[in-house]
Amino acid sequence: MGDYDYLIKFLALGDSGVGKTSFLHRYTDNSFNGQFISTVGIDFKEKKVVYKSAKGGFGGRGQRVLLQLWDTAGQERFRSLTTAFFRDAMGFILIFDITNEQSFLNIRDWLSQLKVHAYCEQPDIIICGNKGDLENRRQVSTARAKQLADQLGLPYFETSACTGVNVEKSVDCLLDLVMQRIQQSVETSSLPLSECRGVSLDGDPNASTSYCANC
Ligand SMILES: Nc1nc2c(ncn2[C@@H]2O[C@H](COP(=O)(O)OP(=O)(O)OP(=O)(O)O)[C@@H](O)[C@H]2O)c(=O)[nH]1
């Protein structure tokens, strides 16, 4: 039995160079490296957090969560490899670069990929417009990004892996969405166990059959 109550898997996706690796580094190690070393295939980092539901779920008690953060290569040549990992993630951090309009336009393509490969049709997703510190090179306005996110019904954050702005806040938001989903599925037990997967609710990190997603 691990020293945590839940193992939660998130996956970062988006075009090459938008800052997925940097974002996850900032979140897990609170550090930033200006060098660009493009991810080859897939990588992951972990961080332990205590989750407390603002709505008083989980009996009001803090839950020890081991967050596993999967970092995918944005390059097209790794696409079939990286999309194979989508189905095991419970939440998605969809990142574009505010200084690169094409990475913003590609958001819809990434969402279509998610629709095909994620564990359900409506997984929990947040959109992050990264490199918010590069205001003088901005190509996508906050209003435009927010409008798209509103249309899609997804939370939007303007982040900077460089300064750290909104990085933790955005991941906290995604964790809240996923934990609420877990809480609801425990309450309604709407799916038979055979259709459940992902995280152990009984604290056993090796048991992988007790996460029910209401989708
Ligand atoms: N100024 C600034 N630079 C950033 C930020 N985030 C990432 N970068 C830089 O952008 C470049 C690409 O960042 P990565 O994190 O490697 O990008 P990636 O999305 O993981 O790229 P792939 O692995 O190819 O998919 C690097 O030089 C980073 O230092 C940010 O918030 N602000």
TrEMBL record:
Location, primary (coarse class): other
EC number in record: 3.6.5.2
Key words, A-Z: Acetylation, Disulfide bond, Endosome, GTP-binding, Hydrolase, Lipoprotein, Membrane, Methylation, Nucleotide-binding, Prenylation
GO molecular function terms attached to this record: G protein activity; GTP binding; GTPase activity
Highest taxon, organism lineage: Eukaryota
Family assignment from sequence similarity: Belongs to the small GTPase superfamily. Rab family.
Annotated protein name in UniProt: small monomeric GTPase
Species per Swiss-Prot/TrEMBL record: Caenorhabditis briggsae
